[in-house]
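Q: what sequence does this backbone want?
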């Protein structure tokens, strides 16, 4: 039987548990928070006063902070790419007739709120160039999204396990910085988004754990493949208007590292957490090839940590079109 057919068979076997996993990891629409819970009520007489407060508090936040917040928001707003990518994974029905398709739709619906609330907050803040942001968002969706997973569910679930934890770290750190600057409203907003991301990380990590139990060698090979080629962040494809695809990513990444929102060492720590979460060192019944893959994975964190220590981040901020210059 081909690897593709084996993966399809495993996805069909696991599907019986997906409805229970939806109930465990996703929150009913009537109970979950909505963007309007954190934004001024446009029906209220206090609306303009609340907007004025947002704009005043926004003045306390530094340039690099806004660059990272904008980049995070744009990444969240590129959700159509992520849904279409997941719907094309082997074993997930694109028209939603199976439980896997139901998972993707409901996960997407939860994620959609993140870009919504951040977009509206940025618009009200008065600190950013919304038209340039909107162009970057449109480019990110229009340019396409290739993270090297193909239609393989094993590789895709490794990716989502990693990426959801990375977004938790980023939003959680932004929340802490906003709190330190006295911006409680933005801090609560980013904190609750980070909570969603952690919940989603637990779900995708659970999917991988279940695959390890029924197809350990091929799951190990998929994990090895993803980490050897490196996890491609969605922001990797960022560009500003007039520039080529991906040209904004390096400076965005430098900014995030400079202020400590997401660093190379965070990448290493996420890998370590996944190795521990899936008990990689205890998995049995592996082929010789999968055993070698495990050896590579267990040695990888120390190697990546040494590389991370050598990275030099520019001290000066790059001037993005998204945010008003700190020199003005």
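A:
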């Amino acid at each position: 039987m081909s690897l593709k057919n084996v993966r399809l068979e495993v996805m069909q076997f696991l599907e019986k548990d997906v409805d229970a996993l939806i109930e465990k990891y996703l929150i009913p629409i009537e109970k979950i928070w909505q963007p309007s819970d954190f934004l001024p009520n446009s029906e209220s007489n206090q609306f303009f006063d609340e907007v004025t407060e947002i704009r005043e508090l926004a003045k306390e936040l530094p340039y690099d902070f806004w660059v990272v917040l904008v980049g995070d928001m744009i990444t969240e707003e590129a959700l159509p790419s992520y849904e279409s990518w997941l719907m094309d994974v082997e074993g997930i029905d694109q028209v939603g007739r199976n439980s896997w398709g139901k998972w993707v739709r409901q996960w997407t619906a939860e994620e959609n709120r993140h870009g919504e609330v951040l977009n509206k907050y940025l618009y009200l803040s008065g600190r950013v160039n919304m038209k340039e942001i909107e162009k970057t968002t449109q480019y990110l969706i229009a340019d396409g999204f290739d993270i090297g997973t193909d239609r393989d569910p094993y590789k895709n679930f490794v990716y989502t396990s990693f990426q959801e934890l990375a977004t938790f770290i980023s939003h959680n750190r932004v929340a802490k910085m906003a709190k330190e600057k006295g911006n409680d409203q933005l801090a609560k907003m980013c904190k609750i988004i980070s909570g969603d991301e952690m919940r989603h990380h637990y779900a995708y990590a659970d999917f991988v754990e279940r695959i390890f139990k029924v197809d350990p060698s091929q799951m190990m090979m998929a994990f090895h493949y993803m980490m050897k080629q490196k996890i491609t962040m969605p922001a990797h494809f960022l560009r500003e208007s007039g520039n080529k695809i991906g040209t904004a990513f390096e400076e965005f990444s430098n900014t995030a590292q400079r202020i400590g929102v997401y660093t190379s060492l965070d990448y290493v720590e996420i890998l370590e957490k996944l190795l521990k979460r899936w008990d990689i060192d205890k998995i049995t019944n592996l082929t010789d090839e999968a055993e070698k893959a495990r050896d590579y994975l267990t040695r990888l964190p120390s190697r990546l940590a040494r590389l991370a220590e050598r990275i030099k981040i520019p001290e000066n901020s790059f001037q993005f079109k998204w945010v008003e210059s700190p020199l003005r």
